[in-house]
Specification:
The complex is a heterodimer. Chain A is α/β, with parallel strands linked by helices. Chain A contains 10 helices and 12 strands. The model of chain B has no long low-confidence stretch (mean pLDDT 82). Classes of the chains: A alpha/beta, B mainly alpha.
Chain lengths: 258, 457
């Protein structure tokens, strides 16, 4: 989306290095993420694309031995700064994981979890509304509206993943991070999720890590290619797939390695 | 003799294997590995010998006794007197007899000794010949295409089956002895009096003159189990009041907050608590905690008994902490990391995640661990015997002394017991009810734990 012909940059990362203990996992990553666009991160396994994704909402804090250096600026604010409130940050930046991980609670409670801990609903009605709109946005409402109070773990894999997406958007995040959201799903569920991603980019900035190049080509507007902890090339998806500058990118795209 | 058979078994193993190797060296293919031929032969050597050996051990004394006593059979002795004569004979033959030696008994003792030596040597001969015969038979059967693997495997299966059967049969036996003695008890004492009576005073049964006829009405106010049931649950309740919060919180700390290094040292330390013998906890409660509580209570103007339910329950709680802590730590650790990630990614803090996601997910397992703790508290004996007193008071004051089922069983069965006496049978009735309570608790706990497992595996 363009505003006055200038692309809006949502996330701006500068010289990001990540270490696991003594091993360096990411080397000097500089990547800008455009607002209300889908950015795909591709690359072979272990190249650091998931690690980079987890930097963006500081999920790497959970791992004891992980250290992050460099600046990641979101809304003019460096999230690696000491003054950054991780709770507020994660409210603004939601995340969907590789394996669907609904909480062992009812469908309703899964969605209301985020709004409750952030105190977003003042009354039961308000909460009902948040749950309904979140599920509708995640294209799950029609399937579960009659069984909101049954456990979320009883849904199918694709439904569970959409439930997790609904859970992520319930707190109205500005950015949604998706870490291989379709790798545990069948083709039909994958198609549903991809459709959903396209829908969601109206309101959210989306960054998706994927192993499927076809998926990156289908859903994203921008693509970044990672290899061995370095960002080799990034740009519009069209350009990366049709006319890559770097030899490695071309080899990977054409399936010569990875 | 026993060692001899084992040695023979080993030897035949080597013979069997050697024969198999020789067959192999003539370029014939064996149907099993050479070891199987060895095992096959060893089994054939040892098993028939052991069967004969044990049959002999069972029947020899009976037969010898019959032969000895046949000398006395026409002299009009009573069974009891015959038994006495036999015991005297045996004692004399061992040179341990101290009474008056009659020529009759002397003659029997000599006969006894000669019978024993005949039995010994004939046993040796028979067992040896059986071994030789069976080994020879099996050795002949070994050839390149004889099947040895299947019999050996079947034999192993049979051994394992016998072992598990023994364990189950013992349990069944214990349960049945409990049931029959309990039924006998309730023939004398009405079930109603036992379950609803509020007065427990088994000492009354001690003073009965055993030659007097049994008069059930005399016990009408003796075996009312309410006070000791109440005492049991009361002390278990105090114990759980100590164990659940501390155990659970330390479990949560270990699983969620403690760094790898702290956990590495803290967990074994807590588990050491579980390794302390309950006797040690018992005298800790009786000699340290009890008097300490009494002193504190006195200084506050309270009347505290030196043997209080509080001291026993509190120490019992400390004993149970490691169970609850260690089990709930395991359960919490096994909650998938993805759930934690999901919660953190929503912006939840650590305590919110624990309270709202991890705890509910781990709850069935935690409940299971608590129930196991309760059943331990109810079955615990040493601490209550030493620290909570033996008088069965019906009280809800933690500062007074009460008594529990286990402590009463100890009181009843210490020292001499008379079988068929209501006092002794009361112990069985108590044991039975204790068994039922802990059985139910364990079943419920295992169910809950299993249900939880199904969810995440």
């Amino acid at each position: 989306m363009k505003k006055n012909g200038v692309k809006m940059i949502k996330i701006n990362s500068k010289n990001v290095d990540v270490y696991y203990g003594k091993k360096q996992a990411l080397f000097n990553i500089n990547l800008d993420i455009e607002e209300n666009q889908v950015t795909a991160l591709i690359g072979p396994s272990g190249c650091g694309k998931s690690t980079f994704l987890r930097c963006l909402n500081r999920m790497n804090d959970v791992i004891d031995i992980c250290r992050v250096k460099g600046q990641i600026i979101i809304n003019d604010f460096d999230i690696n700064d000491k003054s950054c409130d991780v709770v507020r940050l994660r409210e603004k930046i939601g995340m969907v994981f590789q394996k669907p991980n609904p909480f062992p609670k009812t469908i309703y409670e899964n969605i209301s979890y985020g709004p409750t801990i952030h105190g977003m609903a003042q009354s039961k009605n308000e909460m009902d509304e948040i749950v309904e709109t979140s599920l509708k946005k995640a294209a799950l409402w029609e399937e579960v509206k009659d069984r909101l109070h049954e456990p979320g773990t009883g849904l199918s894999g694709g439904q569970q993943q959409r439930l997790c997406i609904a859970r992520a958007i319930s707190v109205k995040p500005e950015v949604i991070l998706m870490d291989e959201p379709c790798s545990a799903l069948d083709p039909i569920a994958t198609a549903q999720i991809e459709e959903l991603i396209d829908e969601l980019k109206k309101d959210h900035t989306i960054i998706i890590v994927t192993h499927s190049m076809a998926q990156a080509a289908r859903v994203s507007q921008n693509t970044g290619f990672f290899h061995l902890g370095e960002l080799i090339e990034h740009g519009s998806t069209d350009k990366i797939f049709k006319n890559p500058e770097n030899k490695k990118t071309q080899d990977y795209i054409t399936g010569r390695f990875g | 003799m026993f060692i001899f058979i084992v040695l023979l078994g080993f030897t035949s193993y080597y013979f069997g294997r050697r024969k198999a190797y020789t067959i192999q060296s003539t370029n014939k293919r064996l149907t099993a590995l050479p070891q199987f031929y060895g095992y096959y032969l060893a089994i054939w050597c040892a098993i028939p010998a052991f069967i004969i050996f044990s049959l002999w051990a069972i029947f020899e004394p009976t037969i010898v006794k019959l032969l000895i006593l046949s000398d006395y059979s026409n002299q009009g002795y009573l069974d009891d007197e015959l038994n006495l004569i036999y015991e005297k004979t045996k004692a004399l033959s061992r040179g341990q007899f101290t009474g008056e030696i009659t020529p009759f008994i002397e003659a029997s003792a000599e006969k006894y000794l000669s019978l024993r030596s005949i039995a010994q040597s004939s046993k040796a001969v028979i067992v040896l010949s059986i071994i030789i015969a069976s080994v020879a038979y099996a050795y002949k059967k070994i050839s390149s295409n004889s099947r040895t693997r299947e019999p050996v495997e079947k034999f192993l299966k049979a051994v394992l089956f016998t072992a598990s059967l023994a364990a189950i049969l013992t349990t069944v036996g214990i349960v049945f002895s409990l049931i029959f003695q309990t039924i006998d008890f309730f023939k004398v004492i009405p079930l109603f009096d036992f379950v609803f009576g509020t007065h427990w005073y088994p000492a009354k049964a001690f003073v009965r003159d055993s030659s007097e006829a049994l008069d059930p009405t005399m016990y009408s106010d003796t075996f009312g189990a309410v006070p000791i049931f109440a005492g049991t649950f009361f002390i278990a309740f105090i114990a759980m009041c100590v164990a659940i919060p501390i155990g659970l919180m330390s479990g949560i700390y270990l699983a969620e907050y403690a760094s790898v290094k702290v956990r590495q040292y803290a967990k074994p330390l807590i588990e050491i608590l579980a390794g302390i013998p309950t006797v040690v906890y018992g005298f800790f409660a009786a000699l340290t905690v009890g008097p300490f509580l009494k002193e504190i209570g006195n200084s506050m103007g309270l009347d505290v008994s030196a043997e209080s339910a509080l001291a026993a329950g509190g120490v019992m709680g400390i004993m149970i902490i490691p169970f609850i802590s260690s089990l709930s730590d395991d359960v919490i650790t096994s909650v998938p990391q993805s759930l934690r990630d999901g919660s953190y990614a929503m912006g939840a803090t650590k305590s919110e995640t624990i309270k709202k996601v991890i705890f509910p997910a781990a709850l069935p397992g935690i409940v299971g661990s608590i129930l196991l703790g309760v059943s331990r508290a109810i079955g615990e004996t040493m601490i209550v015997v030493m620290a909570s007193g033996l008088a069965a008071n019906l009280t809800l004051n933690p500062l007074e002394s009460t008594s529990t089922i286990t402590a009463q069983i100890v009181v009843i069965l210490i020292g001499d017991q008379a079988f068929g006496d209501p006092k002794t049978q009361a112990a069985f009735a108590l044991g039975m009810s204790l068994f039922l309570v802990t059985l139910c608790l364990n079943i419920v706990a295992l169910r809950v734990v299993k249900k939880y497992r199904e969810k995440y595996e």
